[in-house]
Every structure is written in C-alpha cells, then in structure tokens.
Amino acid sequence: MAEVAQALETSNVTSIKSLAESAALNSVPSAYAFNINPNDEADPNDPEFAIPIVDMSLLTSGSPDQRAKIVRDLVKICEEWGFFIAINHGVPESLMKAMIDACHGFFSLPDEEKKEFKSGNDVLEMFKYGTSYNLALDKVLLWRDFFKVRTHPEFYSLYKPASFSEVSLEFSRRSREVALEITKAISESLGLEPNYIHDKMNMDRGLQMLAGNYYPPCPQPEHAIGIPHHTDHGLVTLLIQNEMTGLQVEHNGKWLTVNGPPNGFFVNLADQMQILTNGKYKSVMHRATVNNKATRISIAIPHGPSIDTTIAPAPELCEREGQPPKYLAMNYKEYIQLQQSGKNYMKSTFDHILA
Ligand code: OGA
Ligand code: NI
Prior knowledge:
This protein has eleven helices and 14 strands. By secondary structure, the protein is of the alpha+beta class. Residues 1-7 have low confidence and may be disordered. The structure holds N-oxalylglycine and nickel (II) ion (NI). It holds the Pfam family 2OG-FeII_Oxy.
C-alpha cells in the first residue's frame, strides 16, 4: 500500500491495471474518489427505458417499405434518445471477438512495453496509450487505461501484440461500412439526400479512431468512475464490449445501463450531428461505470467529419424548420481541441459555440 500511496503522490501512476492488481487495494484511493448516486439510475424494466433496436439488415437488404419504416423510426430515436443498438449489421461475431481479444492482448503487455505507445496529447497523434484521461488536467483520476489509434483516412495501428494490426484493419473497415450506412439512413430521416451527411462532412476523409478502454475490477465501484459523463465530439460512435456491462446513457434525466442483444453495436450520436441538425438530433450524454467482479473492456469507434471541415447547422434544415442556427460554425479540429482543453472539464463544449 505504501507503494500505491507513493505512486499517487508523485502522480506517477503508470496504469490502473497494475494499481488494481496490487493485493493491498481494498478501497478506492482518494485521488480516484468519485461518487455515483444510485438514485439517478433508471429501472431497465420500465418500458420508458426500453433501448431502441435498429435492424441494419432491413436498411441494406430489406424491401423499400421496410427501409422506409426504419428511416421513420430513426427520427424518433435520434430526437429522443440519440442512442440505439444496431443488430444484424454484417460484422462477423468472430471478428468482433478477435478485436476484443487483441485489445486484451495489448493491455496485458507489461507496463514497460505499453509505455512505448505513450505520446503527447494532440488528438491527431497516430496512437496514444495512457491512464485516466489526461493526467495533466484530470481533477479526479479515472478507473481506466486506454489507447487511441487513428484508423481513417490513413490507417495506423499499434504494433503489439503481433495480431493487432491485421485484426484492427479488418474491424475498422467493416465497422466503417456500418457507420456509413447509419449516416445514410440518418440523412434520409432528415428528408435530405442519402449522401448529404457523407458529402457535407467530407467523410471520404473522415476522422475515424479505434479507442480501447480497460476497466479493471474496483473494490468500491460506486466510489469511482471509468469515464465521467460526456458527449463524443464526432458524428456517430459505435461501441462494443466484452461480457461485462458498464456503459450508461442519460435518458429522461436518468442513467440507464446499456444491456442488449449480444453482438450488437451500441451506437451513439455525437456533437457534430447535433450541430449539423441544429439541435434536432441529440448528442447523447453517456458515461462508463466500473464493477467489482471482472475486468471490462470496451472498444469505441468514433466517426467524424474530416478534420478540416467547418460544421454549421444545415441551412436546408434551418430554412425548412424556420429556425435560426443555434450554433456557430466551427472547424472540426478546433472543436476537438476546445473539447479536450482543460476549460471544458466535465462541461459541455456546446456552451462555447451557442449562436
Ligand atoms: C468513450 C466512451 C464508454 C464505455 O470511450 O468515449 O464513452 O463504455 N466509452 O467504455
Ligand atoms: Ni464516449
């Protein structure tokens, strides 16, 4: 325990994995103290909190009527939830599992080896590895280790473990197809051309990342947090996890633990979608909780515009709805930098760009 205390004092935390594995750890060290209020949690059996499910096969190979029905459903889902579970999406179960295994392989490397992947805090690094969020800015340390790799427009990869590159290339490519199908259907749900979002957001050069999160068991899960409440900065994020739950989305003022059909993609809309739709569609607030039973691994795949795109509310939508733009136009790269600057610690980046 003395070692743990010392590591924290000097802010020399190398990974939450090694901290959590130290035998003496039976409570949450104060640097990680974060209280979760169980009264804010939703009852998953309440029909009000039934998570929407979107059958992707009806978008890709359903009849025109079936497709139209999903597109209509998406209007309500995107307005009220900003979140759904995509099923029958075509990405093989074996590939999803191989991706989780490859992440597990990476996090299982000795801290010394993982350190090779540490880098600065620029979002546009090829890859980075670390613990918490940003040790220089965090006021409360997070119960997670992470890596982030840029996979589009240029594909980069971690070079350890050996299988990582091949698996992540295929997984990134296949999950991108799902994301693009979703942006097509969302464009249509807004009464726009199917390629509207893709083209306006320059998604042929769109930023895509592969972000792995490792949440080891925590002795007091209600007194620590994996990732505190936030919205993602891109257009749409896909997420998969191992057999442990932990993702919570905010819905009707409550936190709902996401649980659903195995092999589905959890899909959340992100900030640029809210900006583009002038607030019609919602960038859902979400967070990652931890548990005291087993390690949870999640992989988030955020998809965004190209980094040089300027995003503003779509004039077509503002005109049709007779509403002035609610947000100022902003370059995507600057938006990301603003979100990740200390200024926005646990606050919404939207506040800065209200028109
Ligand atoms: C994220 C995120 C949630 C999770 O990486 O942005 O929200 O369940 N992750 O790991
Ligand atoms: Ni997120």
